[in-house]
Amino acid sequence: MSPTQVHPPHRDGLRFKKLDLHLHTPASRCFGDKSVTPEAIIAEAKAKGLSGIAVTDHNSGDWVDLVKAAAEPANLVVFPGVEITCAGGTSGIHLIALFDPQRGKVDIETLLGALGLRPNQFGDITTVVERSPMDVAKIIHDRGGLAVLAHADSSKGALEDMRGEQRTLLLKSPFISAAEGTDFQNAQKKGTHKRVVDVLDGTDPVYARHLAVYQASDNPTGLGDGKHGLAGIGTRCSFFKLDLINLDGLRQCFVDPEVRIRQDFEFTSSVYPYISNINVKGGFLDGVEAKFHSGLNSILGAKGTGKSLLIEFLRFALNQEPSNREIYADHDSKLASRLQLYSSVQLTLTDETGRSFDIKRTYDPANDSPYEDPGKGDIAQIFPVLFLSQNEIIKIAENPAQQIEFIDRFFDFRSYQNDIQTINQALNGLDRQLADSLRAFEQARPIERSIATLRQELERLDLSLKNPAFDHFAAVEAKDKALRTPAAYLDSLHSNLIEQRTELESLPPQVTTPDLATDPAIKRSYELAKEAHAELLAALEAAAQTIAYSTSCKLRAIRTPFTRTTLWLMTS
């Protein structure tokens, strides 16, 4: 393998592809909007995420080649097909004919001609082929197509519009490859085992036929007018597990529907991690670049070309060395002699989310063979891979303990380990809470005893307070407070009179002009002022004595019996 070698493009392998195998175009006279173009049909199919469609106009192949041409640049597969109304039932039974994408309009029109239709009848849903559905199915088969029962549970469907022996013969016909069902999610019919998929699952003793059943849209306009339109494309479809989207692939799906067909409402997509690329710089495989498929891979080459080395280099880059000592020694010696010092291995990985990323590791044992970007974490845990050399398989076969270890390696315990770690952290927190609770419980015991003692004391005091003497004491206490109020008022007046008398004593009348002190008129005025000052002092003194007497004698006389009562209550 050389660095300049051109690799053929990989096919996708078996994958579920989303297909709508029953679509109409303006070639059907019952199509609503005749201005719709082939390009619009393809754009709508791509918008709905479809990988392939079948153009199945009523008795017409007129638009098959037009739609195929529009689909080619969009990478959408188109099955040429036609919906045929056969003689049977009340007003005709619908069959779908599907041909390989390599076929075209001429194949559809040749089939219609063989069935006896004239060109002026093409596209008309009312045109009935004067042949039984069994005969039509055989003609489709003989021309290399697949015959499918169209909307088998609805109007003009085989299970709805046919009865008796005629229906039994049709369902048993080896030329019928599959059936369309529209009642997968009908809860009532599911409960009674009457859906198309139930009737045709091989358990019905009358039909004794296991037939593949899938969904297709029949692209209604959505307006309830019974016509076909653009908006209905992909509204009901199925997933088919195919490698290449062609008629042989469909035929395989119809043979094995449980494995290869999923209805759109039940399909879930799974992405698995894989190595998409390896690039070696230096050593024996210098310049080698290998691209891997997301599915099964095989490394082919002559003896001594480095097939086993490539596996050892992958193991080195992913840091997943052998656990067996002898195998590890062989692995380490190959790195030293064939990868060599300072050479590197670069991988492109795709994880389970579909995200791609690169890792690069350089062989440098003295520095623990570092990664170019150590920030990616533990690669062995992020991307676990099971590597086994031929010698390693032999060693495992010889050791029962290693066999058990080998089986364990098939299981990814990382999620469980993370759950265990989370639970352990939660348990540690709960353990701390329990320890705090136990300490608090021990500390609470003496406090609870004290609370109980105080509660008993309060109860005793409450009982004591219910004595009538306490009620009388409360009334007397209120009266005492009321009696003290006027006494306090008189004390305040007495203090104010004393202060005013003291202040007045300090302010005797003065002669403002000493030179006029001997003047008879001024002298008489001064004497009058002295007399008024003295009389006012005497009046203040008398008022103070009167208030003092009221406070000390009269009020005491009023409060004395009350005080005795109070003292008696307090000592009772």
Helix content: 40-55%
Mean pLDDT: 87
What is the radius of gyration?
A: 54 Å
Task: Give the biggest sheet.
Answer: 9 strands, mixed
Output the structural class: alpha/beta
Tally the beta strands: 13
Termini Cα gap: 118 Å
Task: Please supply descriptive tags for the structure shown above.
alpha/beta, 4 domains, Rossmann fold, TIM Barrel, 13 strands, elongated, 572 residues, 4-stranded antiparallel sheet
Please, could you describe this protein's structure?
With 572 residues, the protein is α/β, with parallel strands linked by helices. It has 4 domains: 15-263, Metal-dependent hydrolases (TIM Barrel); 274-412, Rossmann fold (3-Layer(aba) Sandwich); 415-464; 468-571. The protein has 18 helices and 13 strands. It has helices at residues 38-47, 64-71, 105-114, 133-142, 158-161, 164-172, 187-191, 196-199, 247-255, 257-260, 307-317, 325-339, 379-382, 390-398, 400-408, 414-465, 468-505, 520-571; strands spanning 15-23, 52-58, 77-86, 93-98, 146-149, 176-180, 212-214, 238-242, 261-263, 274-281, 289-291, 344-350, 356-362. It has a 9-stranded mixed beta sheet with strand order 7-6-5-4-3-2-1-8-9, with helices on both faces. The protein has a 4-stranded antiparallel beta sheet with strand order 11-10-12-13, covered by helices on one side. A hairpin with a 5-residue loop joins strand 12 (344-350) and strand 13 (356-362). Helix 1 (38-47) packs across helix 2 (64-71).
